[in-house]
Amino acid sequence: MLGFLIVLLCIGAYLRCKQNGCCHAHTPKNSYRDALDIVRARYARGEISSEEFNERKKALE
């Protein structure tokens, strides 16, 4: 009985993960966009200077 419950929980967790998209790996293009978005956000918040922003942006390209 306990084994059956564990199997059901695992299947439910897998389906939920699949539905939310957390089981899929990012493509390199998406990783680039994510990194660039992070750099832009840090620049917008004033955490990095314009020089550092340009260096990091150039490094990502």
Question: How would you sum up this structure, described in words?
Answer:
The chain is 77% helix and 0% strand. It is rod-shaped. The chain is mainly alpha-helical and 61 residues long. The longest helix has 19 residues, at 2-20. The protein has helices at residues 2-20, 28-44, 50-60. It starts with a helix and ends with a helix. The protein has one domain (2-60). Helix 2 runs antiparallel to helix 3.
Distance between the termini: 55 Å
Quaternary structure annotation? single chain
**Amount of helix:** over 70%
Radius of gyration: 20 Å
Please state the overall shape, judged from the principal axes of the Cα atoms.
Answer: rod-shaped
Overall tally of structural domains = 1
User: What is the structural class?
Assistant: mainly alpha
Strand content: under 5%
The overall average pLDDT, rounded, is 81
Give the SSE string: HHH
Number of helices: 3
